[in-house]
């Protein structure tokens, strides 16, 4: 990778992205390589269920020493809390992140998430606000998502795509907050690449006549994932209703979380331990574990207080901190990709088994980066399309677990694919993996072999997710409307005020 030039602030870079930060620590200088943004010519090649005694949460009273920490690694707002609770901190995505906790290891955390609830610090993820009259068209140009049909306060999994090739720059969640306002989350490990990409694409979009796009990166904002079957109960107990909102409380108390379905979001206030009330936080129902849960975006000045409130109010019997180790095994059981392993710049959504992220209207209209390539791949060769030579699938592997890089072979010993993620499944007590395999071998039930430590191991192509997802979705055929038109108008006005408050505090 060529050496890049640094800029003092993002607004100095081409495209004029603004950085919103009210963190106590100054974020590291953003860097860019603007010359290769629009059409990359060189892309990287693809390369126990019993619980231990529950330990009470420890809240730090002073900052932990950072004398032995490399200066280039950043800390999330919750770093001191992790250290106080015995976390093993490791470099990940440019941050020091907890991989597990001394008294609550990876396996125990995994099972606890499936049976109770866990709280994951994901503040290293990059949170963006994209708004303005050109926001809709801009997002439709760089992602295959059906932005036009995305309703207010709903989200969709999508991907940033390279022009011409349709390769995946990064996977992302896009949430529509309003007609011209979007909340977008991208991966920490792709931060420099994504900021460089968005800078160039925004500049190119506006240069070619696109309407104005405002883009802010929410540096310093907290982001936690509350995951597990007890998540809704834990969150609902902490919803605060200020005095001026008592009329709305009568309408929404006890109903708000019940009507907040998977893929939707809401702004709420949280009761804090000192008796005060937080500023509005953005609560999105979903997550990376396959369990019911919420991802909560928190203004930086409230990040620690909101996290403490969740943990203390729930108590260790219901909620525990969890780290990257459990997050990885949970996401693999849920069949979810990890960028840089299961996805990369050379992989298209169709090859990655993510055809479903392409909006219905986009399949006919196209108009997104690489649409000629991607849409051609949707139809197999037998049906007159281009198809794909390989695709991402799941595997159950006998014997030793297959790790990333393990070669998949056919009955004659010929290579036909490779493993990109793999681990023993704590839930299934089997070795699970995902990877890419040649078309023709991709159907569920196909027997193959995987070379593990020089030995061939029997494996079977398996549908994903490996463990059934438990997302909270509306019951089909049931009318979800519980309000009159007058009540809906009052609620809409209240929600607009909440949104304005969140945007004001998170971008200070």
Automatic annotation (TrEMBL):
Keyword Ribosomal protein annotated: no
A single MF term (Gene Ontology): aminomethyltransferase activity
GO biological process: glycine catabolic process
EC numbers on record: 2.1.2.10
Start and end residues of each Aminomethyltransferase C-terminal domain: 391-467
Reaction equations catalysed: N(6)-[(R)-S(8)-aminomethyldihydrolipoyl]-L-lysyl-[protein] + (6S)-5,6,7,8-tetrahydrofolate = N(6)-[(R)-dihydrolipoyl]-L-lysyl-[protein] + (6R)-5,10-methylene-5,6,7,8-tetrahydrofolate + NH4(+)
Every GCVT N-terminal domain range: 78-361
SUPFAM superfamilies membership: Aminomethyltransferase beta-barrel domain, Folate-binding domain
Binding sites annotated in the UniProt record for substrate: 295
Alphabetical list of Pfam families matching this protein: GCV_T, GCV_T_C
GO cellular component, one term: mitochondrion
Localization, UniProt: Mitochondrion
Claim: Coiled coil is one of the keywords in the record: no
Keywords: Aminotransferase, Mitochondrion, Transferase, Transit peptide
Main EC class the enzyme belongs to: transferase
Quaternary context: The glycine cleavage system is composed of four proteins: P, T, L and H.
Family statement: Belongs to the GcvT family.
NCBIfam families cross-referenced by the UniProt entry: gcvT (TIGR00528), PRK00389.1 (NF001567)
Protein name: aminomethyltransferase
The organism of origin for this protein: Calycina marina
């Amino acid at each position: 990778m060529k050496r890049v030039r640094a800029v003092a602030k993002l607004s100095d870079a081409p495209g004029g992205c603004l950085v919103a930060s009210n963190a106590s620590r100054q974020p590291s200088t953003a860097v860019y390589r603007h010359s290769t943004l629009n059409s990359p010519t060189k892309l990287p090649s693809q390369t126990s269920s019993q619980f231990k005694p529950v330990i009470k949460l420890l809240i730090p009273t002073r900052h932990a020493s950072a004398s032995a920490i490399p200066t280039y690694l950043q800390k999330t707002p919750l770093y001191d809390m992790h250290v106080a609770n015995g976390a093993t901190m490791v470099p990940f995505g440019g941050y020091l992140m907890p991989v597990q906790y001394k008294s609550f290891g990876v396996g125990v955390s995994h099972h606890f998430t499936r049976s109770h609830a866990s709280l994951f610090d994901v503040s290293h993820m990059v949170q963006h606000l994209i708004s303005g009259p050109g926001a809709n068209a801009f997002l439709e140009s760089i992602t295959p998502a059906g932005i036009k049909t995305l309703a207010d306060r709903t989200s969709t999994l999508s991907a940033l795509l390279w022009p011409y090739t349709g390769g995946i720059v990064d996977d992302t969640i896009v949430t529509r907050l309003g007609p011209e306002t979007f909340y977008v989350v991208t991966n920490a490990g792709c931060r420099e690449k994504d900021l460089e990409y968005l800078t160039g694409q925004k500049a190119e979009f506006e240069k070619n006549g696109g309407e104005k796009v405002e883009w802010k990166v929410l540096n310093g904002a907290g982001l936690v994932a509350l995951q597990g079957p007890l998540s809704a109960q834990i969150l609902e107990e902490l919803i605060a209703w200020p005095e001026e909102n008592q009329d709305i409380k009568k309408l929404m108390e006890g109903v708000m979380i019940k009507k907040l379905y998977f893929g939707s979001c809401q702004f709420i206030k949280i009761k804090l331990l000192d008796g005060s009330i937080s500023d509005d936080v953005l609560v999105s129902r979903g997550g990376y574990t396959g369990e019911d849960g919420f991802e909560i975006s928190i203004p930086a000045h409230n990040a620690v207080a909101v996290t403490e409130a969740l943990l203390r109010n729930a108590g260790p019997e219901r909620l525990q901190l969890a780290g990257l180790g459990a997050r990885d095994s949970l996401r693999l059981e849920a069949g979810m990709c990890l960028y840089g392993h299961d996805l990369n710049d050379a992989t298209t959504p169709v090859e990655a088994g993510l055809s479903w992220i392409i909006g219905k209207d986009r399949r006919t209209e196209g108009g997104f980066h690489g649409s000629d390539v991607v849409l051609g791949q949707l139809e197999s060769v037998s049906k007159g399309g281009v198809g794909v030579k390989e695709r991402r699938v799941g595997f159950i592997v006998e014997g030793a677990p297959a790790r990333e890089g393990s070669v998949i072979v056919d009955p004659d010993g010929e290579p036909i694919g490779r493993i990109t993620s793999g681990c023993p499944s704590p839930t299934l007590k089997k070795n699970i993996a995902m990877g890419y395999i040649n078309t023709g071998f991709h159907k569920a039930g196909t027997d193959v072999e995987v070379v593990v430590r020089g030995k061939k191991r029997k494996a079977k192509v398996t549908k994903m997710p490996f463990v059934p997802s438990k997302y909270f979705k509306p019951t089909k055929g049931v009318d979800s409307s519980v309000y009159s038109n007058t009540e809906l108008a009052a609620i809409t006005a209240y929600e607009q005020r909440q949104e304005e408050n969140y945007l004001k505090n998170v971008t200070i």
